[in-house]
Amino acid sequence: MRYRAVLVAFFLVPGLWGVVSVTDAVTASDEVVCPGENLGEDGEEHPGPMRPGDRHCVVLDGAGAVGTRTYEQQQRVQSLERRRDARNGALLLAYAAAGSFAAWRATRPRRDGG
Asked: I want to staple 58 with a disulfide (CB 3.0 to 4.6 A). Which of 1, 22, 36, 102 is the partner?
């Protein structure tokens, strides 16, 4: 019976990851945050979230710039990331539920009809 608990735990760990992913997606802020340097309407860099009218956000990969995004583009990217996180979390939860149930059913003691 000990292996039964271990087998079920192997499915519950991805389920916990799914709960965290869904929770992060649902509770994410609607603020549009630039992942690099944020240039305002005046062309100057300013801290904090992006605002409508900001010229562009320089997307950084390490120390190098890999592209720029407008306010609307960054807003769309963040929305897509939230939806992706929610979808992946839901899939992990479904995997955990189905796998845990299958492991529990497959390892339960059998009754002989005898």
From this structure: 36
pTM of the entire predicted model: 0.77
Which pLDDT score is estimated for 112? 65
Torsion of CA 103, 109, 112, 113, to 10 degrees: -60
* Residue 67 backbone phi and psi in degrees, to 5: 165, 175
Write the burial class of residue 14 (CB in 10 Å: 0-12 exposed, 13-18 middle, 19+ buried).
middle
Q: Is 113 helix (H, G, I), strand (E, B) or coil?
A: coil
- Tell me the C-alpha distance between 36 and 64, whole Å: 10
Q: At what angle do helices 71-107 and 2-27 cross, to 10 degrees?
A: 160
| Nearest CA-CA partner of 85 in 37, 41, 25, 7 | 25
